[in-house]
Specification:
By secondary structure, the protein is an alpha/beta fold. It has helices at residues 11-17, 72-87, 108-114, 146-157, 163-170, 195-198, 207-215, 225-233, 245-250, 277-281, 285-320, 331-341, 344-355, 360-377, 386-397; strands at residues 22-25, 30-33, 59-64, 92-97, 119-123, 173-179, 185-188, 202-204, 219-221, 239-243, 259-262, 271-276, 325-328. The protein has 15 helices and 13 strands. The strands form 3 sheets. A 6-stranded mixed beta sheet has the order 9-8-10-7-11-13, with helices on both faces. Strands 4-3-5-12-6 form a 5-stranded mixed beta sheet, sandwiched between helices. The chain is globular, with a radius of gyration of 22 Å.
C-alpha cells in the first residue's frame, strides 16, 4: 500500500547527511528508534541525543542474492560486504547466499519482511506493485546511459521530501547497494534484428519490455534466472528479450541462443541490495555511517566492474566464434517500434502506480523529475555500452 510518509524512520535524512537518528538498544533484545537530536546535542523529547555512543557489539546477517557470484549481481554485493566487515573491524559479518541459494528471486522482499534474510537483492520485474515509482526504471526508450539512470534514481531516493524515499520506507527497506544494469539485449536461437523477426517467438521477458515485444507479435513468460539456460536448451523458449550482455554471456546463454541483438531499448530495469529496516535499526550509528559511505562509493565502483565484465564477455564471444552473431535494430526500426507503441508503455507504468495508490498527478510529476534528472546526468560518468563496444572491436579486428 502506498504511504507518502508516516511513522517510519526517515532513512533519507541519514543517507544524505549522516545524522544519527536511530540507536540500538544493544544486548537488551529490543531496538529503540529515536527522534533527530537537538542542535546542541541535548536529549530530544523521547530521550534521543546527538552524541550517541558507539558499541562494540558484533552483528551477523544473511544476504539473499539473485545472480551468480561471478556476475555484477554477485560481485558488487561481495565487494560491499567485504568492505563493511573490514571497515567495522569485523563487527559486521554477512553470510552471502548468491544465485537464489537462500531465497527465490520472487520471495526476497517477503524474506526481508519476515526476517529470513537481513539484506536482499530486489529486482524490479518481481516487485513492480510494491515499488511503483522505482518501477519507472522499467520504461525502455528513455536513456542508454545506465549510470545516469541509476544515479538519477539514487538522487531522487535521497530527496527528504520526495516520494521515492517514502516508497522505500513504506516497504520497510533501506536501499544501500545500487547495481548497474547494462542496456537491453535480446538473445535468440535464430537472428531476430527486426520487429517482423520477433513475431511468433517465445521469449523470456518481463515488465514493460514484455509488453513491447508482445506488441511485435511475440509471446512471453517470466522464467527465473536459474531456469533460463535449460529452457533455451530444451526449446521451451526461443530466446530472452530484455537481458544484460555481461550476465547473459557469463551464464552461457550464447551457447544456446547465439544471435545477440541490440533492440534499441536502452535501459529497461533496475536492481539493488536493500537492508530490512528492522535490521538497520538494530545497528549503532557508527556502523550506519560506514554503510552510508560505502553506498556512496559503490556507485562508481559498480559501474567500473560492469565495464570490465562486458569486456570479458566480448572476449568470450570472440573466443567462442561459431554461430555467435551480433546485430542491432536500425534507427528506422526502433522509431517504427516506438510509433507502434505510442504512449502504451507509459500508460501501463502510470496505471500500475495509480492502482498501487499513488495519486496520478504525483506519479506524472515524479516521471518528469526522473527523465529530467537522467538527461542532466547523461554523459557525466564512465558508462560504456558493452555490446556496441564489442561490435566495434570485432569489426576493427575483422573477426
Amino acid at each position: 500500500m502506498w504511504n507518502s510518509g508516516g511513522p517510519l524512520l526517515n532513512v533519507r535524512t541519514l543517507l544524505m547527511s549522516g545524522m544519527l537518528v536511530v540507536a540500538a538498544a544493544c544486548g537488551q533484545g529490543s531496538v529503540t528508534t529515536t527522534q533527530p537530536p537537538t542542535e546542541d546535542g541535548a536529549p530530544t523529547e523521547d530521550g534521543g541525543s546527538r552524541d550517541t555512543p558507539t558499541s562494540d557489539e558484533a552483528f551477523e546477517f544473511k544476504y539473499a542474492g539473485v545472480g551468480p557470484e561471478q556476475t555484477i549481481f554477485g560481485q558488487v554485493p561481495t565487494w560491499y560486504f567485504e568492505e563493511l566487515e573490514e571497515r567495522t573491524g569485523g563487527r559486521v559479518k554477512v553470510e552471502l547466499f548468491h544465485g537464489e541459494s537462500l531465497i527465490g528471486q520472487a520471495d526476497i522482499l517477503a524474506a526481508l519482511e519476515d526476517g529470513r534474510a537481513d539484506f536482499g537483492a530486489l529486482t524490479l520485474p518481481f516487485v513492480p506493485d510494491r515499488f511503483p515509482l522505482w518501477n519507472v526504471r522499467s520504461l525502455p526508450f528513455v536513456t542508454s546511459d545506465g549510470e545516469a539512470a541509476m544515479s538519477a534514481i539514487r538522487k531522487l531516493s535521497l530527496d527528504e521530501d520526495g516520494l521515492l524515499g517514502a516508497e522505500f520506507e513504506s516497504n520497510g527497506v533501506v536501499p544501500l547497494v545500487w547495481l548497474p544494469v547494462g542496456n537491453a539485449i535480446n538473445m535468440t536461437s535464430q537472428p531476430a534484428d527486426s520487429l517482423e523477426a520477433l513475431s511468433g517467438l517465445r521469449l523470456r521477458s518481463a515488465g514493460l519490455v514484455a509488453q513491447a515485444v508482445e506488441e511485435a507479435g511475440a509471446t512471453t513468460s517470466l522464467i527465473a534466472t536459474a531456469e533460463i539456460y535449460e529452457s533455451l536448451q530444451r526449446g521451451v523458449i526461443d530466446g530472452v528479450a530484455g537481458y544484460v550482455f555481461d550476465t547473459g554471456v557469463a551464464l552461457g546463454f550464447h551457447e544456446v541462443a547465439p544471435a545477440i541483438t541490440d533492440p534499441g531499448m536502452g535501459q529497461y530495469t533496475a536492481s539493488l541490495v536493500a537492508m530490512s529496516l528492522d535490521a538497520w535499526n538494530s545497528l549503532p550509528p557508527d556502523i550506519q555511517d560506514v554503510m552510508i559511505a560505502l553506498s556512496e562509493e559503490g556507485v562508481g565502483h559498480a559501474v567500473g566492474l560492469l565495464n570490465e565484465n562486458e569486456e570479458v564477455a566480448c572476449d568470450q564471444l570472440q573466443e567462442a566464434g561459431g554461430d555467435v552473431t551480433l546485430s542491432k535494430f536500425s534507427d528506422q526500426e526502433v522509431a517504427g517500434w516506438q510509433e507502434v507503441l505510442g504512449d502504451s508503455l507509459t500508460d501501463a507504468w502510470l496505471g500500475n502506480a495509480v492502482d498501487s495508490g499513488v495519486p496520478e498527478s504525483e506519479a506524472l510529476a515524479f516521471l518528469d523529475d526522473y527523465v529530467e534528472t537522467v538527461k542532466d546526468l547523461e554523459g557525466d560518468g564512465v558508462w560504456v555500452d558493452g555490446l556496441a563496444r564489442c561490435q566495434e572491436l570485432i569489426d576493427s579486428s575483422g573477426s
